[in-house]
Amino acid sequence: MSKAATKKQHWRSKVQDSFVPLLGPSGELGIAVGGGADYGEFPFVTSAPGGGLTVGDIILEIGGTPVLGMTLGDVRGVLSSCPHPVRIKTAPQGMEAFPY
């Protein structure tokens, strides 16, 4: 008899597409990022207001710009230069293979 094959979902099925609005009258963007190539890490969310983003999520794109491999300063630059609300694609940490 053969064992029943268990099919794993591809990591792309876990990618989330979120929009981050400006918060309050000050116009602050309610997200903070960490990591980056200068730290040998993927960029990730360190603070989020909710609504789709989770602390620890790996940031794949900001406003359509791929950010994997960028330094933290470059990621913050892309984040601040995007029109609002900012569109961010993320994936949860711990996914097995990122081909980017």
Automatic annotation (TrEMBL):
Q: Which domain of life is it from?
A: Eukaryota
SUPFAM superfamilies listed in its UniProt record: PDZ domain-like
Q: Which InterPro entries match?
A: PDZ, PDZ_6, PDZ_sf
What's in the GO CC field?
A: cell-cell junction; cytoplasm
Q: Which GO BP terms apply?
A: signal transduction
Domain spans labelled PDZ? 26-94
Provide an example Pfam family for this protein: PDZ_6
Which PANTHER family does the record associate with it? MAGI FAMILY MEMBER, X-LINKED A-RELATED, MEMBRANE ASSOCIATED GUANYLATE KINASE-RELATED
Q: What is this protein called?
A: PDZ domain-containing protein
